[in-house]
Amino acid sequence: DAGVIQSPRHEVTEMGQEVTLRCKLISGHNSLFWYRQTMMRGLELLIYFNNNVPIDDSGMPEDRFSAKMPNASFSTLKIQPSEPRDSAVYFCASSRHRGPSGNTIYFGEGSWLTVV
Amino acid sequence: GQQLNQSPQSMFIQEGEDVSMNCTSSSIFNTWLWYKQDPGEGPVLLIALYKAGELTSNGRLTAQFGITRKDSFLNISASIPSDVGIYFCAGQLATNAGKSTFGDGTTLTVKP
């Protein structure tokens, strides 16, 4: 089975530009997580969805960030306008939600974003 | 929010040595997960623990779910150079509908 697929793998963009990161879940999974990883802050959960519904977006840094699940297998994370401090690795992860616990999360390979 | 304390932050060991790292929390978790991240890659699941007291092995790796449900450890026996990477623990609370809290990671360096 294919794993979580993210695109682009690397992006360099200028400050103020819109950035769109994409994620395809593992087939059969119904929970979707967006994480951001930096040296300073480690792995931070930005938002997660269960059955296409956003459950917790408390980790989204500010209004410049938005995430959607237009269908059960696909998600986008948008940053508009982007700023240099958004430079990080953005990971998408998915799981088959089994209830309150026992949900094994599988990560994609990450999108490496540099905003100059 | 919940925090996990993962230690040590980094380890420098000789090839062949055993490694031990752990995570502790002030909250009770119902699931503990251990991941390894290689440079330039996403975290990969190593071991999942679902019951207090559970001891699970995966090759040279052994992990345990603490009896108090507030801690977990990961051991690596007879380390090899490819064990290099960052190891993360993650815990899930029953009340958080599948959301995982991650530790800050243990960076492992293995000297040949």
Explain what you see.
The complex is a heterodimer of chains A (116) and B (112). Chain A is mainly β. Chain A has strands at residues 5-7, 10-13, 19-24, 31-38, 42-50, 53-56, 65-71, 74-79, 88-95, 106-107, 111-115. In chain A, the strands form two sheets. In chain A, strands 2, 4, 5, 6, 9, 10 and 11 form a seven-stranded mixed beta sheet that branches. Chain A has a four-stranded antiparallel beta sheet with strand order 1-3-8-7, with no helix packed on it. The model of chain A has no long low-confidence stretch (mean pLDDT 92). Chain A is globular and about 40 Å long. Helix content of chain A is 0%, strand content 53%. Chain B contains no helices and eleven strands. The model of chain B has no long low-confidence stretch (mean pLDDT 91). In chain B, strands 2, 4, 5, 9, 10 and 11 form a six-stranded mixed beta sheet that branches. Chain B is globular and about 45 Å long. Chain B starts with a strand and ends with a strand. In chain B, a hairpin with a 5-residue loop joins β7 (61-65) and β8 (71-76). With 112 residues, chain B is mainly beta. Classes of the chains: A mainly beta (116), B mainly beta (112). The A-B interface holds A 4, 31, 33, 42-43, 45, 48, 50, 55-56, 91, 93, 95, 97-110 and B 29-31, 33, 35, 41-45, 48, 50, 88, 90, 92-102, 104-105.
Could you name the key traits of this structure?
heterodimer, A: 116 residues, mainly beta, 11 strands, B: 112 residues, 6-stranded mixed beta sheet, 5-stranded antiparallel beta sheet, 0% helix
